[in-house]
Prior knowledge:
The chain is mostly beta strands.
Amino acid sequence: MKRKLSFLFLSALTIPFFMVSCSDDKEEQEVKPATDLVVDNNSVTLLQGDEITVSITSGNGDYYVKPFDENVATATIKGKTITIPVVVNIVDLTLKSNEATFAEPDAESQYISIERGNGGYSFTYQVGDGEPTTDATIVEATEKENLITLKPKARGDVKVIVTDQKGSVEEISVKVNPYNLKLENEATSLIIGGYEASTEIAITRGNGDYKLAQLTDDNKTYLKTAELITEDGATKLKLTGKKLGTTTLELSDAAGQKLTLPVYVNPVCYRMEYDVCFKIDIKKYAESHSEVKSMNQLTFEVVFYPTYTRSMQSFIGLESVFLLRAEAKDVNPRFEIATKINGKSDPRFRSQQTIYCDDSEGGRKTPGKWYHIAIVYDGTKSSTKEAYKMYINGVRETLTPADNSYEDCAPNSSLNLTDVGGNDKALLIGRSGDSYRVGYCKVYQARMWKRALDESEIKANMCKILNAEEHSDLMGDIGYSRKVSEVLQFLKIGEMAAADWMRKFVCRI
Length: 509
């Protein structure tokens, strides 16, 4: 330890005396001034056991020296040379603290003061029962001006052994906690936007060797796949949804850190209400796709959640041609297919099931629910019972004609989609031809096929995101996409000017 020493240097001055004259007339006295005492070094800093000389450059002779504290240093003087040796008193090494804990390897450095010691400090490190080593693998210690700096480097426990130049030893117990396991954007849960949709998220913080706990039966109910993948040196969690609902996954790493992760398989939907709907100019489309003027088969699919119900709401289709709508009554309305049959006035086929929603005009309040509904037209059939079908959540529904006059008559052999009625004269989702026939609902997905799907096909592809190239009969598909720029995609009726408009109404529930 360095010590700064101060000494009092004194000179035994020759005292002047007065010479007194014997004359009766006058006495005279003469006084000579003393010379200032000057040394070539007024302050010295020495290590224990060091020695230094200081020279007197000016003074009055007959010098002596006296230290302020002889327990610290002694001094001797010979002529004009003062010799100062530091007294070596060995003390026990004492630290202000003997432990330190770091939240993670990237935490800020911590500091421990040396309260007593003998200088010349060195550090070794001991992990467990191993031999002390100079390798600072977990924490690095340095000393400056009696202050020890501890800088964490890696997770683990280590003893930092502090030794001074006289062999006095102290230990510091250091614990560096592992990194907290974290996901991209500090995510604490994941949302998958819909059936068959996938999402990926990177692990941005952790201790390596990541593992996903074995999937439970509950996980498998809601998730089609859940796996860890490595891309460009980053580990990512990739999930694919299977069923709407919530489940929980668990991630772990090499340090035993765990992250419990709720996963929500949610529909991504478009909210339809008032004047908000999706409109396709079918007549303009027919200019380059003439087949829509004579279609002997057609299927519409829609996944939606009624938010309010009243008389004659419309959900998807073409007014006066082929349409899914609500029955013409305010309380407990049923689903209907409204279509066209030669010589028959307003033919409609009603479901047995009523429409559940959050609220209704008639005052009935019941919990709403999600529906997948497919309506099928097949003009190749000989009777309306087989020509018009409805599937609710993949199961064929028993339909009742609104008028017995067309209960089992022959259907139209084909439909001209450009014969659409109403004011809009368009293929609509969330409304029909007149503005008051608004469908209050949240739409997750809607499709249009140019053939009649059967029950097995409907069940197999229900709510999935399909590749248009693999399904040549798929005329249009509006549904969830992972890219915001592709939220709207009516595949083969593409180039929709409504894309920017629709994006405003995307909502996640």
